[in-house]
Amino acid sequence: MPKVRKIPQRMCVGCRVMKNKKELIRVVRTPTGEIALDETGKKSGRGAYLCRDSNCLTLAVKGKRLQKALDQEVGSDIIETIREKLKVP
User: Fold this and answer.
1) What whole-number distance in Å separates Cα of residue 51 and Cα of residue 46?
2) How far is CA 58 from its chain centroid?
C-alpha cells in the first residue's frame, strides 16, 4: 500500500484559518532583518502566512498580527507590495 503524504497546513495570520501551505503567501523576515515576500516558501527566516485575500492582509495589519508573527514592524512599502501581489490571481 502506498504511503500517504501529509499536506503541510499553516494558519493565515489574518483570518486565522488553517489552509494548505501552497494556498497561502509567505512573508518572511530574513536573518538580516529584511522583510520580503517569499515566492518559493523556502527562504530562511521567520515566516508568516496570509491567504490570497486583501481582507486577510487588512485584518493582519490592523490587529498587528503580521508584525507580531514576524517580531518586527512591517513597513507600509512591504504591505503595498503584498497588496499588489494579491491582486494577481
Assistant:
1) 17
2) 13
The CA-to-CA distance between both ends of the chain, in Å, stands at: 37
Q: How many CB atoms lie within 10 A of CB 31?
A: 10
Residue 40 to residue 65: CA distance in whole angstroms:
22
- Residue 11: what pLDDT? 96
**Per residue in 6-17, is it b (16+ CB within 10 Å) or e — as a string?**
eeeebebbbeee
Query: Could you give phi then psi for residue 75, rounded to 5 degrees?
Result: -70, 155
Domains annotated for the chain, with CATH where assigned, are 9-87 (3.30.1230.10)
Q: What average pLDDT does this structure show over 26-49?
A: 91
Task: Quickly count: other Cβ atoms within 10 Å of residue 63's Cβ.
Answer: 13
